[in-house]
Amino acid sequence: MPRRTMIEAIRDAMDVSMGRDERVIVFGEDVGFFGGVFRCTQGLQAKYGKSRCFDTPISEAGIVGSAIGMAAYGLKPCVEVQFADYVYPAYDQIVSEAARLRYRSNGDFTCPIVVRMPTGGGIFGGQTHSQSPEALFTHVSGLKVVVPSNPHDAKGLLIAAIEDPDPVIFLEPKRLYNGPFDGHHERPVTPWSKHELGEVADGHYTVPLGKAVIRRPGAAVTVLAYGTMVYVAQAAAEETGIDAEIIDLRTLLPLDLETIVDSVNRTGRCVIVHEATLTSGFGAELSALVQENCFYHLEAPVVRVAGWDTPYPHAQEWDYFPGPARLGRALVETMEA
Amino acid sequence: MADAGMLRFHVPEPEVRPGGTPDFSDVTIPKAGSVPHPEIDVDPRDIRDLAFSIIRVLNRAGEAVGPWAGLLSDDELLEGLRHMMTLRSFDARMQMAQRQGKTSFYMQHLGEEAVSCAFRKALAPGDMNFPTYRQAGLLIADGYPMVTMMNQIYSNEADPLKGRQLPIMYSSKEHGFFSISGNLATQYIQAVGWAMASAISNDSKIAAAWIGDGSTAESDFHSALVFASTYKAPVVLNVVNNQWAISTFQGIARGGSGTFAARGLGFGIPSLRVDGNDYLAVHAVAKWAAERARKNLGPTLVEYVTYRVGAHSSSDDPSAYRPKAESDAWPLGDPIVRLKNHLIQRGVWSDERHTQAEAEILETVIAAQREAERHGTLHAGGKPSTRDMFEGVYGEMPPHLRRQRQQAGV
To answer: SMART domains in the record, alphabetically (chain A) (predicted)?
Structure first.
């Protein structure tokens, strides 16, 4: 099976979708001729023409707002916001318009758009290229929120998102774009070309939205993770020797609660990890759900490990980032509780 | 320079406040028929002055004059009059229904009926409007059933939107009327996107964007103009300048620029100002702009100069911020009276027939209202089910909403 980086997998997902359905169009800042600052759309304009893949003015509200109008017309826009940190000018369009159009018009108009954006840190991007704003979208009725952790899933989830009848926020962990990550930024890693999850089948396949996957089966404690943190969790389990069951959520909204509850009821312990800041982060929702659904099986308090409640720093990136050491300590404490 | 060293903060003020004498002496009204009618493929640089003038067709004697006149037949004009009278009558009844507690909220069009009624007749089937909350004339003039509008206003059991949306935020794809959001300006860039999609699909349909004078201050207005200009989108960009954004006079949003239409000039978009109370002028300019869009000549910005005679909404009282008699002093008159006088002048209408038509229309509106009220009003009779509240958030209901619906016991 061919191996692809996450960038190549994402590009392939758009290529396959554009080839199958001429309603699928792709646009955003630097997305057309150049192929995007991360090269996710490279070659699509040459292959499908300027009507289906084009550059836009620097206006996130314009990108998403026009995509909503196009979706109302009957196209299926898959747009790129250059960094998740730049999505805020489009937030009103996403929250007040895309998310509610089906509901408020009783299905007279719908909004099948995908808003792709690189998310998370780990590349010394500072405050404006590192944020993880997923909780700002999981709070919005009418949206779906997806965070893939590897090339295979990225392609299948993106095709599923493009084919979905509703607006999907597709957050691409940029630390994983060019190569996997083993939780330690300073060590060399196996490239995607040699990584099992770098295997990406040609052609069309989907990974269903709303389904989590168990990355590492275990009996001692359940770790809930997504995106880059899946690898941090794997490293922490290995380094502490704790038999953690690691769940890669993949879709945050709608959430695969069944897989979570089933696991926590077996292990009796739960640690949640995300890169985004702690307070009102998605971990708070996960923690509440675990408490509501698994209370009588819990042997220890639910613990959250997250980014500190500061803006994303530059020089102190790896002190901010919840790495294997911090997560490892949380695992040990949870086992001892 | 005087006062060097001490900065002063400037906040624009309207000419008059409550208690004062209305004064529109600063509003320059060109003579009807005096503004030229350029070819649709004119170089936008050659018609920059049209963004600072006002295109008018009906003169004070009720005659249609000048190069923008002559497009509409007697029957079309009589139909237009009927649409405007219907909208006014509809508004009066629904405003009253709101006061009677039959619904929570209402917004009327008083004084602005010509804008949406005449514009609709310049579009073709399949074109799409992205309206604000004050363009119900687009529906009336397209034959959308009044009883369906009332069902929506009452949020009753026959409400096509299942009680989910605030009164008057209609939606009808079939009638080229995009779902009204209630958020301001967001739909302006969406209209441009819809138009881009039509061009991408090599279709022949065009879009119309709608915004008020106040909301042009939103950044979505700027995004829309950039995108429309860049991609030469087949869209008519409408700005309804009714002088008031709730309590805020248009000078607050307009700032130092001469007119709202002038905003389009920096984008190279042909920009015209039109007498919004002149049915013939609105229709002629709309037709010109729509034709440009359909012939791949790109967007046109049109500012309709009009006056919001009524309150902003049923929750507003304008006597707190503008003189009561201001609407009487408005120099462009009343759109219904002006078209009525024109039709009388053409010899196809009379005061008697007008009075009779008013009575007939009122009867039709009342009949529709009775029919709608058989399906319930906001607080009485049939209403959408609680189960409906959970439906339609997504194409397929996700598990968490299913669980919540169970918790709600429906």
So the answer is: Transket_pyr (SM00861)
Q: Flag if A70 and B193 touch (Cβ within 8 Å).
A: yes
Q: Residue A21 is encoded by which pair of tokens? A: 């359905």
State the residue for tokens 């009720």.
B62
pLDDT tens-digit series, residues B305-337: 999 999 999 999 999 999 989 999 999 999 999
Kindly state the percentage of chain B with pLDDT values over 70. 99
Find the residue in B nearest to A94 (Cα): B186
Q: Is A297 a catalytic residue?
A: no
Phi-psi bin for B334: left (phi > 0), alpha (psi -120 to 50), beta? beta
CB within 8 A of B25, min separation 6: which ones?
A: none
Start-to-end Cα distance in chain A: 45
Provide the domain limits for residue A179. Answer: 6-198
pLDDT digits (tens, 9 = 90+) for A66-125: 999 999 999 999 999 999 999 999 999 999 999 999 999 999 999 999 999 999 999 999
Widest pairwise Cα distance in chain A: 60
- Phi, psi for residue A26 in degrees, rounded to 5: -130, 130
Band of residue B349 on the pLDDT scale cut at 50, 70, 90 = very high
- Judge if A187 and A231 occupy the same domain: no
Q: Please indicate, yes or no, if residue A11 is contained in any of the structural domains.
A: yes
Residue A204 lies in a domain: no
ipTM over 0.95 threshold: yes
- Burial classification of residue B92, based on how many CB atoms lie within 10 Å of its CB (0-12 exposed, 13-18 middle, 19 or more buried): middle
Interface-testing mutation among B139, B152, B192, B200, with chain A (most A C-beta atoms within 10 A): B200
* One domain for residues A190 and A306: no
Residues in chain A, overall count: 337
Q: Fold for domain B44-315+337-379?
A: Rossmann fold (3.40.50)
- Mapped onto helix, strand or coil, the DSSP state of residue B368 is helix
Do β-strands A213-216 and A244-248 pair in parallel, antiparallel, or remain unpaired? antiparallel
Q: Which residues of A touch B179 (CB under 8 A)?
A: 101, 104-105, 108-109
Among A152, A168, A198, residue at a domain's last position: A198
B82 contact partners, CB below 8 Å, separation of at least 6: B357, B361
Is B270 within 8 Å of B40 (Cβ atoms)?
A: no
Nearest to A254 among B128, B193, B400 (CB): B400
Asked if the Cβ–Cβ distance from A108 to B171 is below 8 Å, we say: yes
Q: In terms of DSSP H, where are the helices of B53-165?
A: 74-99, 113-120, 137-140, 146-154
The CA distance from A299 to A18, in Å, is 50
What phi and psi values does residue B165 have, to the nearest 5 degrees?
-120, 150
Interface test with B, best of A26, A29, A70, A169 (most B CBs within 10 A): A70
B160 CA: distance to closest CA in chain A (Å): 7
Catalytic residue among A129, A204, A274, A314: A129
Backbone phi, psi, residue A148, to 5° = -80, 160
Total structural domains within chain A: 2
Q: Quick check: B190 and A68 CB within 8 A? A: yes
Torsional sign, CA B265, B266, B269, B275: negative
Distance from CA of B173 to the nearest CA of A (A): 6
pLDDT digits (tens, 9 = 90+) for B189-237: 999 999 999 999 999 999 999 999 999 999 999 999 999 999 999 999 9
A220 and A186 share one domain: no
Contacts of B395 in chain A (CB under 8 A): 102, 110, 164-166
CA distance B404 to B410: 9
Report how far residue B90's alpha carbon sits from residue B233's, in angstroms, rounded to the nearest whole number: 35
The structure tokens listed for A165 are: 């009848």
Q: How many CB pairs under 8 A join A and B?
A: 145
Alpha-carbon distance of A310 to A316, in angstroms, equals 11
C-alpha to C-alpha distance for A14 and A41, rounded to whole angstroms:
8
One domain for residues A230 and A82: no
Task: Give A140→chain B minimum CA distance, Å.
Answer: 11
